[in-house]
Amino acid sequence: MDRAPEKILIVTGEESGDMRAAALVREILALRPGTRFIGIAGERCRKEGVETFTDITELAVIGFTEVLRNIIRIKRVFDQTLEHARRERPSLAILVDYPGFNLRLASELKKLGIKVIYYISPQVWAWKESRVALIKKTVDRMMVLFPFEKDLYARHGFTADLVGHPLVDEVKPSISRDAFLKQLGLDGTRPVIGLLPGSRRKEISRHVPVMLEAARLIRKERPGTQILLLKTKNIDRDVFLPDGSNSPGGPTISEDYYNALNACDAAIVCSGTATLETGLLGKPMVVIYKTSWLTWLIARIVIKIPHIALINIVAGKKIVEELLQANASAQNIAKKLLDTLEPSRNAAIRQDLAKASGLLGAPGASQRAARVVNAEL
User: Fold this and answer.
1) Topology, domain 177-358
2) Is the CB of residue 237 less than 8 Å from the CB of residue 202?
3) Residue ranges per structural domain of the chain
4) Measured on CA atoms in the order 287, 291, 293, 298, is the torsion positive or negative?
5) How far separated are the first and last CA of the chain, in Å rounded?
6) Which of 2, 73, 118, 291 shows its CA 20 to 30 Å from the CA of 227?
7) DSSP characters for 147-189?
8) How many other CB atoms are found less than 10 A from the CB of residue 166?
9) What are phi and psi of 178, to 5 degrees?
10) Are 7-164+362-376 and 177-358 equal in CATH topology?
């Protein structure tokens, strides 16, 4: 008698996790055709065949105060997820990033006797290293992206699977810089500054105004500079430009993320995965972040690492400038960005970015992660 196909619960809480999860689902299906996936995910996972009972937009909040304001909705989704797990009895669960939700979920799934694989470790190296004890109790396999994460877990007596970073495969422009700029009606002989304000509404609303003002100051200093605003597909255009129109000389907007980023000479980047994407393409950058003051004050207390930009963390030193909260003024951003365009400084940054990118592992991260899942099945 043929065995029923495996059923996997997959849970992710935001856009970047949906990208990682979709690539993993695709590779698992290549190894085990017919596997059924159910869970919380977004458009990319649905295209790979994941049956979603909740969309990631229900969970896409960030920061301590933002989570508190949405706690009732998040609790409803949590209870709904557990109910689906009880009813569907999946062979295992793959929890992708989003630790505030997923670590609690892991504990409850273990009580139900469901094996838990965690993909993309919580940032225990930044704060709450004590969570490793909980992870050891509730997670059967932890798949990590960075070598320093594997080392950290080893110090706590837990063997993590180092699979490398999927971005190594994903960050690949499809056309040349000049061809892309021509498509947008931009001049390939003039400098291009990219603005990457984030992928969440709150991030975008906080970052776009100061980025646009910094861009204005840069153009004042260097006339002819072209500004390219990178827009994520899941957020409406009017969130990026609230006035609903491009003013003369304003930014050009593109959703073609990697081709647009590749066309830039330097960028102003919201802290997060985008710093790795920018680094993989060798683009000097200034990293900024603004959040609510309460979230910022709490973060100052609990976060224990010297840098917040992932590219700096991977490198183990400050490669690119970080401007946070009040320091992320238009004047400071413009000055630091212009510094990155100075030839000797520019060359040094690019060299350091290449070294840091090499620490993200070889191509094939999603395939390696799929093999870990396959072994557990």
Assistant:
1) Rossmann fold (3.40.50)
2) no
3) 7-164+362-376, 177-358
4) negative
5) 19
6) 291
7) HHHHHHHHHTT---EE---THHHH---SS-HHHHHHHHT--TT
8) 27
9) -65, -40
10) yes
pTM of the model: 0.84
Q: Which tens digit of pLDDT belongs to each residue from 128-173?
A: 788 899 999 999 999 999 999 999 999 999 999 999 999 999 999 9
Q: What is the DSSP letter of 57?
A: G
Residue carrying structure tokens 């949405």: 70
User: What are the tens digits of pLDDT across the range 313-324?
Assistant: 999 999 999 999
In the CATH scheme, what architecture does the domain 7-164+362-376 have? 3-Layer(aba) Sandwich (3.40)
Strands 192-196 and 226-230: parallel
Whose tokens are 């596997």? That residue is 35
Secondary structure of 292-342 in HEC code, one letter for each residue: CHHHHHHHHHHCCCCCCCHHHHHHCCCCCEEEEHHHCCHHHHHHHHHHHCC
Tokens 């180092």 sit on residue: 162
Residue 314, both tokens: 């991977």
Strands 266-270 and 285-289: parallel
Residue 87: which H helix or E strand, with range? helix 71-88
What's the rounded Cα separation, in Å, for the pair 302 and 295? Answer: 11
Q: Which residues fall within 8 angstroms of residue 220, CB to CB, at 6 or more apart?
A: none
Give residues with Cβ within 8 angstroms of 32, minimum separation 6. 5, 6, 374, 377
pLDDT per residue as tens digits for the range 177-193: 999 999 999 999 999 99
Sign of CA dihedral 19, 20, 21, 22: positive
Q: For residue 171, give the nearest of 67, 84, 263, 276 by alpha carbon.
A: 276
Task: Measure Cα distances from 3 to 7, 35, 60, 123 in Å.
Answer: 12, 11, 37, 38
Are 116 and 93 in contact, with CB atoms under 8 Å apart? yes
Band the pLDDT of 247: cuts 50, 70, 90.
low
